[in-house]
Amino acid sequence: MNHVGQNTDLxxxxxxxILPVETGFGESSRKEWxxxxxxxxxxxxxxxxxxxxxxxxxxxxxxxxxxxxxRKRIRLAPATMxxxxxxxxxxxxxxxxxxxxxxxGSAVKFSEFVDSEYKPTMxxxxxxxxxxxxWGVIENYLKPQFGEFCLRDMTPLTIQRFLSGLAQSPLSxxxxxxxxxxxxxxxxxxxxxxxxxxxxxxxxxxxPRRRGRSTKFYITPAQFPALMxxxxxxxxxxxxxxxxxxxxxxxLIALRWCDIREDSITVDERFCRGDWGAPKSKASNATIAVxxxxxxxxxxxxxxxxTVRAGTGKRTCRVVKSDGPxxxxxxxxxxxxxxxxxxILTRHIKPAARRLGLEFVNWRCLRTSHATWLKxxxxxxxxxxxxxxxxxxxxxxxxxxxFVPESQRRVVERLTELPGxxxxx
Length: 425
Known about the structure:
Distance between the termini: 85 Å
Structural class: alpha+beta
Number of strands: 9
Number of helices: 15
Number of domains: 3
CATH architecture of the largest domain: Orthogonal Bundle
Order of helices and strands: HEEEHHHHHHHHEEEEHEEHHHHH
CATH superfamily of the largest domain: Intergrase catalytic core
Mean pLDDT: 83
CATH topology of the largest domain: hpI Integrase, Chain A
Radius of gyration: 31 Å
Strand content: 5-15%
């Protein structure tokens, strides 16, 4: 199309398709713009080099000295292919560059973007435990694979080849899924901040599972009393509250006395390894009904003292040092500050579980147990969702409530109780 004299909102394009000086850009700006336009559109002629057709293009690269343009040779096709077909391949290969689908920022190396942009801007927005998990995936899997790649070189095909290769690794499906999620988070951030036009991870698939989904472990009502006897206070009360309320451990540690009501508990804060914040989601910020036995056990902490080892001797501590409205319910024994969830898990909960032959007990297991117990007592799906404080009922049903053979058997046996039903011999 001929653009000579074409009207625009800013003025009239000249015969080269460039806005004239009258638009307010100035002579120097116009020359820079024309140079940029000439430099952006590239149409190199393919040439044979050995057994391959190649083209020479110029691409931006970033280094410690800033942005530079370097000449790069790209292989297109075997030398046996006709030149006409090679030209078509060259046009398609250069289309993203000539149409501006590759931004200048896409020349940044993956490792440099992660260290200079993603780490200081995106990771602080996550919970401490999530930050640690993400950084472990980046250091162990993504940087070794993509560290020297420019962002523009991380195409959907390149990434899909990497994800498909995970089928040969011993990693579980959940670990592979986490790797994909972390990579998608990084490249999604690059797209959000203008380094890429879109996130190349979107729509990519993982290798199929080696085996079907397994039932997540939960503690049965018969196993729970024996577990409680092996855990000292105040950690036994923490486990008791976690199982009978379904609170996450970060919410449990952040409970204050003003959150404890006569027959309910308000969840409006969380604490995770030095990080205070709001609950995980809007649905998590709620008041839930609890059994009276839970409230009584919590208030019982005010009367307890425990003897703990202190160096070579022993020390007697009050479990609750102060019970003002803003004081924590579960306080560290020496300083009265917030507790650390992994210390409680490794020092008290897991050793007690192993003595009972229960190998996979953690804080998530306690929350899963609460959801499954709600199913055992016949709780309505919406009631269970509200108690678990999930945004969607499918999360409660598909992830937390586990299959219970005894419950299924009771339902099947009730079929004969339907009006008019009769077993045929």
